[in-house]
Amino acid sequence: MGGAWSLTVWGVRGSFPAPQADFLGYGGHTCCLSLDCGDALVVLDAGSGLAALGERIAREKRRRVDILLSHLHLDHVMGLFPFAPRYDRAAEIHLYGAPGFAGELARLIGSSLWPVDLANGRARILFHEVWGGRPFQLAGGAAPGLAITALEGSHPGGCFYYRLEDGVRSLAYALDCELSGDMEPRLADFARGADLLVWDASFTVRDKKPGWGHAAWEEGQAFGASAGVRRVLMTHYSWEYTDQFIHSQELLAGGSCIFAKEGMVIAL
Question: What is the DSSP letter of 217?
């Protein structure tokens, strides 16, 4: 694939949005990132930040979008409810997730919870099941040079992490990740040498809650170095962490990693 990649941050929170004034410096939306790679637009998770991305897609008159879902917890899919392309007859939305996710998602985005359910929106929506360890490409031959691999993660209810690469550059995405059991060595092999690792910075080491399926930013700092990752992007902050608190952690990190802010664009 020719040309550089560009990663845009649309949402940085985990668990629940944080719309209060002292949270908006870093951002109050739940996690969503988009990767522009050539002619393809690949979205990583569909948190509430997806709504703003949908407005951009509508302005640009894009007709196709591919969304990789790590799992179906609400903070990672709530942006699908108001997502503008869902209501565009000319749009084609490709959703990728774990086996059986289509039925679960259709029940979640149903008429009992939202006026327009997933089946009755105007866009054409296609579901693609993904299996851990099996490389795949975007459906229909989009972005033919892009290879994607999923890794089964460590999170209550199950989760996928994704690695995207084109032979020139690579991105590893590992949100909702607890380094328990054999997760650390498996993830290290998966992320080895990536140009950018998107890390679950839900907590600090001091605040971390074992069994909740999340990590601390300090763990990501150490993990990135041990896995030979070029850069680490911290995101998925606790919805209780204010701008002031996150900034204090960023200062402690001393520039060794990037702390995501909504609107940030990272060139790969």
Answer: H
